[in-house]
Design a protein that fits this description.
The complex is a heterodimer of chains A (201) and B (50). Chain A is mainly α. Helices cover 66% and strands 2% of the residues of chain A. In chain A, α1 crosses α5, α3 runs antiparallel to α8 and α5 packs antiparallel against α6. The chains are: A mainly alpha (201), B mainly alpha (50). Chains A and B meet through α2, α3, β1, α4 and α6 of A and α1, α2 and α3 of B.
Chain lengths: 201, 50
Amino acid sequence: MIAPFPLSLPSGSVGTLGVAFAVGIGFGWCLERAGLGSARKLMGQFHLTDLAVFKVMFSAIVTAMLGLFWLSWLGALDLGRVYVPETFIGPQLAGGLVFGAGMALAGLCPGTSCVAAATGRIDGLAVVGGFFTGVLATGLLVPKLGSLYAGGARGSLTLDALLGMRPGVMTLVVVACAMAGFVVAEWIEHQTAAPRVETES
Amino acid sequence: MGGGAVLARGCTSGQGLTGGALLSAGAWLFIGAAFGAAYLVAFVTRRSWT
């Protein structure tokens, strides 16, 4: 029982596209139901009044990470066949800064902008348009960037390899960080919550 | 945002969630840079969101 569903299908086949379609529908539905189709929800994160985005993201990361860890430990999944996104220090640092600045201006990320557009929000449509314009323009510029685009290439570097830890220990550290992060997030929300107006009886 | 996603080889979902769960070092670098920049820009532009 190795790498059950999509990994055993050839890339780009009807099967993988079908799985991607179904997962995409589910992802979009969850984002919309969580209220993340609204730019105000994302801005709550950056104005520190509503940290739902942090909690959703870290929960998703921890869930997927633990799923991969335990499925691999039980022998149900061959982690060697799972592609780990490669590290390019320069472009990912620069890209992250540009991306984050855009995210704070738009109030949406690429995924939630699709959700916002699908629910008829004009700002969502504008962000989708701007996003694809940016992708196209940067894509055309990439050949001119030359070696800068591949600057600081480290291959499929993982945090546990970088820090010299065993994968299990690293997984535990991330879970511990998430737990501590959730407690701090709740505390911050409590501090920034609008003071409740006392009504006189 | 589109330009950043091309440079970083992924967005919040592709790098942030997927790469983060796979413990990719570059993904965590991307998350840190994106949130750092977003907090700075959100603070500077905070008056236009009321």
